[in-house]
Amino acid sequence: xxxxxxxxxxxxxxxxxxxxxxxxxxxxxxxxxxxxxxxxxxxxxxxxxxxxxxxxxxxxxxxxxxxxxxxxxxxxxxxxxxxxxxxxxxxxxxxxxxxxxxxxxxxxxxxxxxxxxxxxxxxxxxxxxxxxxxxxxxxxxxxxxxxxxxxxxxxxxxxxxxxxxxxxxxxxxxxxxxxxxxx
Length: 183
Hints:
Enzyme class: transferase
Mean pLDDT: 96
CATH class: Alpha Beta
GO molecular function, one term: acyltransferase activity
Order of helices and strands: EEHHEEEHEHEEE
Strand order of the largest sheet: 1-2-3-4-5
Number of strands: 9
Radius of gyration: 16 Å
Number of helices: 4
Organism: Marinibaculum pumilum
Keywords: Acyltransferase, Transferase
CATH topology: Aminopeptidase
Shape: globular
Helix content: 25-40%
Largest sheet: 5 strands, antiparallel
Structural class: alpha+beta
CATH superfamily: Gcn5-related N-acetyltransferase (GNAT)
Oligomer: single chain
EC number: 2.3.-.-
């Protein structure tokens, strides 16, 4: 299992102690604003178990992220950042996506960008991926800003209706960002 350290963060495998704070962030209406529904404790635990299973199988995935720098105002588990193979068909799949979900206490501190840069480096240098994508509901300006800080670009022709989101939902329309491997 690959673990990644940055100046302030550790991207690592999941621990049982991560499940309760993960459930709390998955139940937070603001964190889950751009998802079809909040998750109850059982759904959140099931998701964490599945993420952990994928990491065990392939050595990487949506890593648990903890703040490791003692001088930071936030400490411990803050959410996840990492890589995934989407399980749906779209014009851009198969692919590797980068994604994140952090608790509100971690917002606005650059953690998502810092961890995502490390995950991208792993995708390009360790996995040899030619491209990484990211996608989110069209109105998710916070995640879109992270994608842009990472140097990802969007072509509106790539935008799509997410097949796992109900027809008629304002969250169905998704924007797609791409980042090619460095030359």
